[in-house]
Specification:
Layout (H helix, E strand, L loop, with lengths): L4 H8 L8 H10 L8 E5 L5 H10 L2 E6 L2 H14 L3 E5 L12 E7 L7 H11 E14 L5 H11 L7 H11 L3 E9 H7 L16 H16 L4 E9 L3
Parallel strand pairs: 1-2, 1-4, 2-3, 4-5
Antiparallel strand pairs: 5-7, 6-7
GO molecular function: S-adenosylmethionine-dependent methyltransferase activity
Pfam families: Methyltransf_11 (PF08241)
Protein name: Class I SAM-dependent methyltransferase
Length: 242
């Protein structure tokens, strides 16, 4: 069986693979207000770390979705262990199983870039209420790469396109978002210098796993170091006005 980067994250139980990790997530969400009646979607929930945080700390109504069955399993186990009421479903960001105008807020952490970006943004826009907000943390190209370098990245991550900042902003606007802010930006190199690891970002189960996963994650580490000053991330906050 052939495994990929998403499989490695899922089976190793890595909860916050995006640049900045869970520390960045908490800093971003600390500045956001959530009411107890607010419906929040964790779009690409992974092992459910952010969903659990939202439920425990922000006391809102949390919904979580992920395409990977192992991530769904881990997220479900997390909620059961912590006795949290989070609605978890398996599904694609490109075809969300929710009605129009359903959510007040959507959180997407390193998930949109792994999709057909226009389709996913259209769907996230659709399920947001008027006045709702999308908070997205995603990889961003800091400068143009050569074709063979892009091929390396695409081969490891199975990502079709690595947008730069202007391409991300254009994609949000094309999906219908009228106000888009950049809350934070960093290169991978800058983030490595600032990063503080949190123990609860790793939730490895005591099961025997193929060595392929370690190989994939090692390759990921090498790739991040190689492109450390040419890849980065942005934290976007996009609002739906109509």
């Amino acid at each position: 069986m052939t495994y990929d980067y998403q499989d490695a994250l899922a089976y190793k139980g890595i909860s916050a693979a995006h640049p900045g990790g869970f520390s960045l997530t908490k800093k971003v969400l600390a500045k956001e207000h959530f009411s107890s009646q607010e419906k929040v979607l964790d779009a690409g929930c992974g092992t459910g770390l952010t969903s659990a945080y939202l439920s425990k700390e922000k006391h809102c109504k949390v919904y979580a979705i992920d395409i990977h069955p192992q991530m769904i399993k881990r997220a479900t186990e997390r909620m059961k262990k912590e006795k949290l009421q989070v609605s978890i479903v398996k599904g694609s960001l490109e075809k969300l199983p929710y009605p129009d105008h359903f959510f007040h807020t959507v959180i997407a952490e390193s998930s949109i870039i792994f999709t057909n970006i226009p389709l996913a943004l259209n769907e996230l826009y659709r399920v947001l209420k008027p006045g709702g907000k999308l908070i997205s943390i995603d990889m961003t190209l800091e400068e143009d790469l050569r074709p063979h370098e892009l091929a390396q990245l695409k081969g490891l991550y199975h990502i079709e396109h690595f947008p730069n900042e202007q391409e991300w902003l254009g994609a949000f606007e094309k999906a219908g978002f009228k106000k888009v802010e950049i809350l934070k930006s960093n290169t991978i190199l800058q983030e490595i210098e600032e990063y503080t690891f949190s123990d609860n970002e790793l939730n490895v189960m005591p099961e025997e796993l193929p060595s392929d996963f370690n190989d994939i994650l090692n390759e990921h580490g090498k790739m991040m170091m190689h492109f450390a000053d040419r890849l980065g991330y942005r934290v976007f906050k996009a609002e739906k006005n109509d």
